[in-house]
## 1
Amino acid sequence: MDYGRFLILRGPAWRELEEALVRLTSRRGHRELTYRGLEAVALGYRRVLQDLAFARSRFPTSGATQRLAGLALEGTRLLLREEHGQRASLLGFFLRVFPAAVRRRAGVVALAVGLFLATGFLGFVAALASPGLGMVFLGPEAIAGLEEGRMWTEALTTTVPPAVSSSRIATNNLSVSLFAFGGGALAGAGSLWILFTNGLLLGAVIGTTLHFGMAPHLLEFISAHGPLELTVIVFSAAAGLVLAHGLVVAEDRPRRVVVADAVRDALAIFGGCAPWLLVLAVVETLVSPAPEVAPALKLALGLVLEGFFLFLAFNPVAGREARGGSPA
Amino acid sequence: MIGSQQGASAGSVDAGMGLLDPGVVLGIDNVALELPLASAGSRALAGLIDYLVLLLGLSVALVAVGVSLQTLGLEVGWIVAVISILSFLVQWLYFFLFEWGTGGRTPGKMAVRLRVVGAQGGTPSPGALLVRTLLRPVDLLVGLLMISLDDRARRLGDRLAGTQVVHAPRPSEAWVLGRPPASWTGREIELAESFLRRAPQMQLDVADELARRFIALALADQPERAMERSTATDAQAALKGILAAGQLSNAR
């Protein structure tokens, strides 16, 4: 077949596909697409790929080959959806996908919790043994306040409006969680850094306030948002460590497959945590700094939020499904 | 969508094993598709534009929100709190929402004509776009280096999300001869198409002279097409009429 005949014979089909793809790019075109229409587009796309193969072999540098290559790429982009992870409704995600990922990566989650608790204990013991350590974490002003029976947290809500300090704390916590997850891509260094520093800081702060007899005040301040916030940060770091596991640890499966599995689970774990960061932002903005909310109510709210999160994360029904999933 | 692919597919595995050139994936019936991968330079430029848009857009939006809330009588503390949270969310969601809503493009990518696609050249899932967004802060440290070292110019977020950034099709540049003379071989057709593509960059008198030579060649074979010449305003237009040349229309 010569070039001119090729264009005459096949050109109309290319134009037809071009027009169909243009329609597909608009929302209206998408909505109006019928099953028969979709089949016609798919057939046209397949024919274009065949024409491209023919044109490449017979007229490799011709305009028609360029035109077909562009058309094939555009068709591929619009007609092929590359899935990434499991598709599920929002409810399905929290009831099945999230807990299943937690179960599959239970070892990594346990490692993250263990590291956090260990460094927390270390900070606690060190602060009790050497009260001067609290100075390093809290600064001289906060320590001077503790000596006078004042919590430094009071300054957070008295020097600036409570809403301002709480929103700053909330966005800071969101950043910490995001870095705990994303830092996993640096071979886990970022996630480990977040676990170590947060564990050490929490332990040292509790130890220091205990030393000055102010621990109940601290616990009252963090009771509404603290338990879930720390859990979310630890789970986010665990998600980061799952990423690191996929990137670093050698397995007998191809790296590409291992990384794809790791990303799917890490994203599911982080996805199960992310919405709670928004809930926590609201709690930290409205409840934690509010003096009119009774301490018992703050504690109850904190425990309910924590309990609900842990129930979702360790949902036993999803756990049974997870055993059939891919290995961690 | 006529198809969906989960995880690593045949084409990307072949590419990963070095059986195909970087940027080449296998489509239906094993037809090779060459993805026009974006290089570090164009991606850095798109990123720069995006961060400028983000900075300017955010500043204007936050001032507008602040003034509106003040008009509504909200306390300064609450206004600062709202602005702080809003600013945080916009910074984190800018890239994800744009790439999700516009088929893999942000304002910066639109300006440089880039697009995020999946490993097979298809539409990436929202999950993949979320992963590459969440890893963006890490890529601000190592991304450019990774793009430079990777054979498919992927940053860390792209590697983990299974995505890549490609050049969007150029606006119609290539010309196709709709009616080449029967005696012309592929070589002559390609020469004519190549000439029509490059003619706008040539000096006018040189371009016209070359167009006249092509016309002479075409009319020597099919003199009945001389009619097309008489209605044209210049030599290049006459050549296009005689050869029924048209430009690509697949650019978006």
## 2
Amino acid sequence: MAKTARSSVVKLSIPCHPEFLRLIRLLVAGYLSRWNVPIDEVEYVKVAVSEACNSAVGCAEGCEEETLELRLWQEGARIGFEVRSKAAECGKSAPRRSEEEIELGLLLIRSLMEDVRMTADPEKGVRVVMYKSIPGPEKQTNGATKTARAR
Amino acid sequence: MELQIKSELRDKTAIVYIKGEIDMYNATALKDRVVSIVDDDGPKCLVLDLQQVEYIDSTGLGILIGIRRRMIEAGGEIRLVIVSPRMTRLFDVTGLSKVFGVYKDAEAAIAENPKG
């Protein structure tokens, strides 16, 4: 399968509120269904991406207009995920989560995902980029199906 | 799926059955409900049956830690029922499987006598 073009990046922008976290998880599951990713791995990715969103939502407490942006894309044999918020822009950022919860969240992200990079700055907001390897092209459900149909 | 919580009291053990997804949105509701059960019934042992929990995040795990702390301070203990390998892995990577007593079902959790 050819490298995915930049235009195939999936983007979602939602209000930075906890009630939208389930929507994020549904999008992640739907996006990963394009590949033959084992169901348990899909669930772990949902946990990790949702944790990144928790960080963003936690930092955006009190910012009614704040938005959270999620981007998903294929990069060779792995899927990239980026979660970003700009909590600082409203000038009210204050963590709504305990230190314990923040530590647990970071632990989950780092344990379940690959190549995790994150920045959380009271003035710049939260940005988390992480990856998950996917099965090789010969095992990908969508590609195999297309080939079979073409014949 | 909306979080569903049911509870029962057997002797001095409170069993709380939780079904659904636990995340930042509803974790506080879970905490309030369980704390209310603990305060009202004063159980020596609290069993949280997570067999039907499909998803839990760090907020939910943090709530469990807080409830455990509360039970210990009151001289009681907390036990969890976890069966799915997926959930087990989350507890393993966070080190919480060593903090909580984990059982295969509620009956097994109840069967073991409370400490102390």
## 3
Amino acid sequence: MEIIIFLALIGVGYFFGSQAEKKHFSELGAREKEMRDLPGVSFRSVPAGKEVEEAILVTGNVVIAVDYFKVFVAGLRNIFGGRVSSYESLVDRARREAVLRMKSEARIINADMIISQRIETSNLSEGAGRGGGAPSIEALAYGTAVRFRK
Amino acid sequence: MEYIPPEDSDVNHNVSSQHPLSEVSWLLGGLVVLLLASYLILGLLVDLIVPYVPPSTEATIGKAFQAVYSDELTGPQKQRLEALFAGLSQHVDPAPEQPYRVHIVEADQVNALAIPGGDIVLFSQLLEEAESENEVAMVLGHEIGHLTHRHSLRSLGRTLVLMAVSDIVLGHGNAVSRVMMPGLNSLQLNFSRSQETDADEVGLQLLNAYYGHAAGATDFFERLSQNSQLSKLESYLSTHPDPAARVQHLKDLIQERDLPLQEKTPWRWPQEKS
């Protein structure tokens, strides 16, 4: 009985997880195209010769949950070692989504650039009680959105 | 400085391109190979170690399974079986350090167990269905054979190894262990076909030594092979495979050794009060 539940969870995880992931990736691609004229850079200051008209702190964060299938694959991976590729796509999605949300916020002031862009991640499930529960990953992107005087 | 937006690219360098299902298949396959390999290697180690385990240690291990026969039948019924058992045990060569003991447990099972350390358990259904004393003696002799060959210790060792391996790899209390735990607790150990054959040979030899002839050696297994659909017998079948082949082997042995076949001793169970 428990094995059936386990297999069902993995099956559901794989089916819905991979659907959601596929959809998210194609969305990310389209939105990144849209935001392409708004660069986010890690410089600590604006490029020489530009005068800042307005600057605000912008943030974007996102939490993405792991599905059962990914946890299962990662668990198997823990036995043999190597790249945990089932989690790689999660980190990638979280990072890109967070940056896009940050950029959306920067659009409010019609920013030309985001400087000092930083990205942080954390594992939300750590210490959340249920030992060994499915983790979810948080990505936080933040930076200073600046609009140059034209 | 001019900002040039990057070109469109479909390649995601941050995500591995391997399909998740193919990764799972590789990992699962590797896990199975790993489990099998460690089971085989550790199982071989068990076989190497077993001959060097002193009987006192085996007896200590067997004590862990006293619960199996904790509510055994006593009284005249046990005395009768013990008399038969003692007669058979006399012919065990070489004689065990500690004499073997027999127990009857009331249960709806046609089955018998040999516990490491020298305890043999018969379930009462087997005694009720027996048609001759010789038949019971053969079953007892068979179980004695498991003990003299130390099959029970070996099988127990292998079962423990499998549980240890699965616990290490899959975590404590995993599905594999859970499936095997009840079997281990009640000592429903699995013997290989060659172990069964070895035990049958000891049984036949003891039967012949005790009665002076080998009648009844195959009766029990013959009934098993005829009634193999009967669910009561299924438990016996599951641990002792292919009764028909065993019957044939025993018949061949009787012919080969030219063992006499005479009148069987009648058997009644439960005994009438006299």
## 4
Amino acid sequence: MTEQSDNTEPQEPASFDEWLPTEPLEARDGWARVRMPIRKYYLQDAGAVQGGLIMTLADEAFWRAVMSLLPLGQRSATAELKVNFIRPARGEYIVAESRIVHKGGRLVVGDTEVRDDRGNLVAKALGTYIIIDLQGEPPE
Amino acid sequence: MTHPNPQPYEPASFAEMLGTENLDSGEGWARIRMPIRQRHLQSAGNVQGGVIVSLADDALAKALHTLLSPGQSTVTVELKVNFIATAREGELIAEGRIAHKGSTLSVGDATVTDGNGKIIAKGLGTWMLLQPKTPSDGQGKKTQS
């Protein structure tokens, strides 16, 4: 790919949000919902949304659920995420709903479900986030 | 948000969207590479976790495909990734190795490293093997259209 593209070539997205747009629907009290519109290039060979993208959306909803519980000055990062893929994701969009099941001083455990636009369960995730303060150290 | 060019961003495939390249592969293993671009970074400037998962998934799927017969395909049933370090620039390399190939389920592990060999993430996943659809199941010929 050339760095100097002329205007006939599509330019690659400048940011993650532009590249892989998701819409936050709601987030409060350790709970969040995020929607991802499906583009045709998200599909793998069998015509379903690629698994990594489903995990990206699950992670995004999980992160918003975590952040809804954190005070200003704390950030969080995914430490670990496990997903079971239940059925292929097709249709217009997928929605992830995440619920925090435990918040400790350093670790947060959350449960996320991803559904297609008909409400069918596509994937189920369980993961761990680590809380980081803005200096980069875990809080006391 | 202004965009200087008139064409929408529409990669031809998921691999092009992610920006991966195949490095090499052999019996039950594969390595792929992804140069880190601005679009891969989340708000803190690190490669977003799902991108790392996609790389691990892709390397493992390629590793498994080296063991398949013509017509067989696979789907990811389950994947777990531990994120060990952040990555901000340079490249990421994912190496997938199939630890077990059964008749229905296969298990593989993936390691994602940066260009210096530092481990960024480890993945372990399960794939289901899909057999090619055959018109006959042993009880005689069935013609479909």
